[in-house]
Design a protein that fits this description.
It is found in: Membrane. This protein has 2 domains: 2-196, Orthogonal Bundle (Clc chloride channel), CATH 1.10.3080.10; 214-400, Clc chloride channel (Orthogonal Bundle). The chain has 17 helices and 2 strands. The protein has helices at 2-46, 48-51, 55-70, 77-85, 95-108, 116-131, 137-156, 159-170, 177-196, 214-248, 252-269, 280-287, 296-310, 317-335, 339-355, 359-369, 374-387; strands at residues 171-172, 399-400. Strands 1-2 form a two-stranded parallel ribbon. It starts with a helix and ends with a strand.
């Protein structure tokens, strides 16, 4: 028994040391990527007509870059799942500069995409590279998951949510403390590092003054149902559109050219630049009392699904936050509910339904909107999560520590 305890203790110390290293490295790269993305967004927002008309051309550059220099890097998250599920021995290190470059280019020219996919792939590559030096397959998977959690945490600076995000979304089977603890350590280190290097965290203190009478409870039920169905619509719509485009436009150059031209026209003529990029403008307007159109959420959803399906790089999470916040604002104004609280609930609940995550979503609410908001947001997240029908934007695969 004593030998077992010593073995566990040494293993914990070893993983903790590696988690510190991973967190520091990933947090640094996340800060570089995140600050670069903010700078690029400012340039595009200041001169949208210099960039939006040329989105299709930017797409052609992205496809060409991956076709000629990316090798298997164009698989993106697929490589991560292959490494975890199928014992893939290498994740090409070129994936990191390629995904950063292609995401910056996508955002500069207005594609409606996110950023978490980049951060998770950065973290996974760093974690897997360190794990590749070890003989233990368990250690390789643990460090892969640790890197993923650090990537998410370094970008969004929500370390607890990032840890559960890695466990829920990217791993199935028994939740082992051997994976949970290093992921948590790396997440805190990555979050602290990126913040120290100038990457700011989004947070908003919501007003939780809500009279829970029968009518209000009925309204909240309607709101939660809407959040769940919209999250499910996003996940299933994205899956359908990816398959449809692969079938109808199998040539990646033709696909990104045609869809890029369509997106350019929409982004220019439908509220110039409003639905380009991350969607942080919609998030800001939702929480700062600025006008939100009742259709903002559906247009952001459509532009995001088309952008990702066409082949533009980034991710889905921040656009999901924007869709949820703008939908929540519209529903709150329609039903006479507190705008800030319902926008916050939408921000979290649509994310939960689209990613099929639960605990990560609850901790996002706590770390972004304050722990006092959780008692009001939790029931809405629960209903939205139940309604998603097991759909997920990460349905392509999961890691399993028990393999």
């Amino acid at each position: 028994m004593e030998n077992v305890r010593i073995g566990i203790s040494r293993g914990a110390i070893f993983y903790t040391f590696l988690a510190l290293v991973i967190g520091l490295l990933v947090g640094t790269v996340d800060a570089l990527f995140g600050r670069g993305l903010l700078f690029i967004t400012e340039i595009r927002d200041a001169h949208p007509l210099y960039f939006l008309p040329f989105l299709a051309l930017a797409g052609l550059v992205i496809v060409y870059t991956y076709q000629h220099f990316g090798k298997e890097s164009q698989k993106g998250m697929g490589l991560i799942f292959e490494a975890g599920n199928k014992g893939r021995k290498d994740i090409p290190k070129r994936l990191v500069p390629l995904i950063i470059f292609s995401t910056w280019l996508s955002h500069l020219f207005g594609a409606s995409v996110g950023r978490e996919g980049v951060a998770v792939q950065i973290g996974a590559t760093i974690g897997h590279t360190l794990g590749g030096k070890l003989a233990s397959k368990e250690a390789q998977k643990v460090l892969l998951i640790t890197g993923m959690a650090a990537g998410f945490a370094g970008l969004f600076q929500t370390p607890i949510a990032a840890t559960f995000f890695a466990i829920e979304i990217l791993m199935v089977g028994k939740i082992e403390y051997i994976a949970l603890f290093p992921a948590l350590v790396a997440s805190y280190v990555a979050s602290t590092t990126s913040h120290a290097l100038g990457l700011e965290k989004f947070s908003f203190a919501v007003n939780t003054d809500l009279n829970l009478d029968a009518i209000t409870l009925l309204k909240l039920l309607v709101v939660a149902l809407c959040f769940g169905l919209v999250g499910r619509l996003f996940a299933q719509g994205l899956s359908f559109m990816k398959s449809y485009m692969m079938l109808k436009l199998s040539n990646p150059y033709r696909r990104i050219l045609i869809v890029g031209l369509m997106l350019s026209l929409g982004l220019i003529f439908i509220h110039l630049d409003r639905y380009a990029g991350l969607g942080t403008n919609l998030i800001s307007m939702s929480f700062n009392g600025q006008p939100i159109n009742a259709y903002d959420w559906i247009l952001k959803l459509l532009f995001t699904v088309l952008s990702i399906s066409a082949g533009f790089q980034g991710g889905e999470v921040t656009p999901l936050f924007a869709i949820g916040a703008s939908l929540g604002t519209s529903l709150a104004l329609l039903l006479g509910l507190p705008v800030g609280l319902i926008a916050a609930a939408g921000y979290v609940s649509v994310f939960s339904a689209a990613t099929n995550s639960y605990f990560a979503s609850i901790f996002i609410a706590a770390e972004v909107f304050g722990y006092g908001s959780v008692q009001y947001i939790l029931p809405l997240v629960t209903i939205a999560y139940i309604l998603n029908g097991n759909a997920s934007i990460y349905a392509q695969g999961k890691l399993n520590l028990e393999d």
